[in-house]
Design brief:
Blueprint (H helix, E strand, L loop, with lengths): L6 E5 L6 E9 L3 H9 L9 E6 L5 E10 L10 E8 L1 H12 L4 E3 L4 H8 L5 H11 L4 H11 L2 H25 L6 H25 L3 H7 L1 E7 L5 H9 L17 E7 L2 E7 L9 H16 L2 E7 L6 H4 L15 E7 L1 H4 L10 E2 L8 H16 L10 H20 L4 H19 L5 H8 L7
Parallel strand pairs: 1-6, 7-9, 7-10, 10-11, 11-12
Antiparallel strand pairs: 1-2, 2-5, 3-4, 4-5, 8-9
Helix pairs in contact: 4-5, 6-7, 6-15, 7-14, 14-15
Length: about 450
């Protein structure tokens, strides 16, 4: 039996123990599972209270059950949902009772969503939006993912594909009537107009330089500097809890410590790195190497300096940072002067520098507000952004390139232009998951949790 013909089941709610747990069943045996456990099928789409029993007739739990007959279900198959008390023993007994029913098996990660995709309940861009929604940490990420789940990109891609196919039909009709005087020209003109409009629309989408992808991944801020300047104290202030060991001894931080923050809805990962200095300690030396590597890759580096001390350009140079607020890799550098309560410095210094006291909290609100402003500029306007993944951008770029080449070729030979239009439609089909996407399905759906 093909795996897709088997009935799958899994816990679809949070891990036990919990107040209520939801076990989902999908496939041709879902009705048998429900009648075996609950005695009879409840009315479709109506919550019904049932005493669940195992195959030996022993009671499992007093539950609420729902029945969704395919194709009018989340997966397009027959689906049963069992809402039980969320104790570990209840779940163990229920899953054991389901597993002994013929042709049932535990679901793999993302298998419910994959079946929904394969049964036409959602396209691949919507499935990717669902994955982003599950993993959203901030409100802005949630809103963006929900727009994708509701078909923001998929609906546009379907419209583009239909228009490409219409233009292609005109071009190919012109080929068929090439011996009939003005007919090819009359067909070619509206086709060229449609192709040019499509190319301009897609080029406009691609011109938005990856803000939506950035919002998915988040902003990375590295706190770096020489040893014992207060990096760990600063990350504790930003996190509002003790996540890093604070010690007066230089070289305390040996590894990279990461904290996930939500700054006004923007996802920000703050990294506390080992103090950068020359050392003979092999463990500390490895920490310094990792610190430099993470700071090089960061979108923003907060370079901590103690009080009024001069900035050591030799210490910053190995990071690839110039010290003027930029780096060859495109990241930015802010100079943050710590311990101003001891040095008598101001709350803020000129030339893009910040003055703080990480131990007392002086200057921290101003630094956080500056980070929020930086994040807003970094992510840009994402409310209307269509593309949220590199896969989508790559296929849209291929579509745009094929449309551009078709415009160039239409005067030279309609046959070649028609072939480029077919390539453009094919790329959009891959984006939606409707043609030749087996190579990417596993990579996408295995990231889902089991039961989704």
């Amino acid at each position: 039996m093909h795996p897709r013909d088997q009935t799958i089941f899994a816990l679809s709610s949070g891990r036990a123990p919990s107040a209520i747990a939801v076990v989902r069943v999908s496939g041709p045996q879902a009705s048998l599972v429900l009648t075996t456990l609950a005695g009879e099928l409840p009315p479709p789409r109506q919550a019904s209270r049932r005493l669940l029993r195992d195959g030996a007739g022993q009671p499992i739990d007093d539950a609420v059950v729902l029945w969704f007959a395919g194709p009018a279900s989340a997966t397009g198959e027959d689906v049963a949902e069992l809402h039980v008390h969320g104790g570990r023993a209840v779940l163990a007994a229920l899953l054991a009772a389901i597993s002994v029913i013929p042709n049932t098996r535990a679901a793999e990660p993302g298998e419910f969503t994959r079946r929904a995709f394969e049964n036409g309940k959602l396209d691949l861009t919507e499935a990717e939006g669902l994955d982003d929604l599950i993993h959203a940490d901030t409100d802005r990420q949630r809103r963006q993912a929900l727009r994708q789940l509701q078909g923001l990109l998929g609906n546009r891609a379907r419209d583009w594909r239909e228009r490409i196919i219409e233009a292609s039909a005109l071009i190919e009709a012109g080929i068929d009537f090439s011996d009939e005087g003005d007919v090819p020209a009359e067909l070619k003109a509206p086709a060229v107009k449609a192709i040019r409009a499509l190319h301009d629309e897609i080029a406009e989408v691609l011109a938005v330089q990856g803000q939506a992808e950035r919002l998915r991944d988040g902003l990375v801020v590295a706190i770096a500097g020489e040893p014992n300047v207060g990096k760990s104290t600063l990350i504790n202030q930003l996190a509002r809890r003790d996540v890093a060991i604070v010690s007066p001894h230089a070289g305390t931080t040996r590894d990279v410590i990461e904290v996930q923050l939500d700054l006004d809805g923007y996802p920000v990962t703050v990294i506390d790195t080992a103090g950068i200095r020359e050392t003979d300690d092999p463990v500390e030396r490895e920490g310094v190497r990792r610190a430099r590597a993470r700071a090089e890759d960061a979108d923003l580096v907060l370079w901590l300096v103690e009080g009024e001390r001069a900035i050591d350009p030799d210490a910053m140079r190995p990071l690839g940072k110039s010290g003027d607020g930029s780096s060859p890799s495109g990241g930015s550098v802010w100079i943050v002067r710590n311990k101003i309560d001891l040095s008598g410095g101001e709350d803020a210094e000129p030339h893009g520098e910040f003055g703080i006291s990480a131990s007392r909290g002086d200057g921290i609100p101003e630094l956080v507000q500056a980070l929020v402003k930086f994040a807003a500029g970094f992510f840009g306007t994402t409310e209307a952004a269509l593309v949220t993944r590199a896969r989508q951008r790559d296929l849209l770029r291929r579509t745009s390139d094929s449309l551009r080449r078709s415009l160039e070729l239409v005067e030279q030979g309609e046959e070649l232009a028609a072939e480029e239009l077919r390539a453009a439609a094919y790329a959009l089909g891959r984006m939606l998951g409707r043609v030749d996407v087996e190579d990417v399905l596993g990579a996408i759906f295995q990231k889902f949790c089991i039961g989704k």
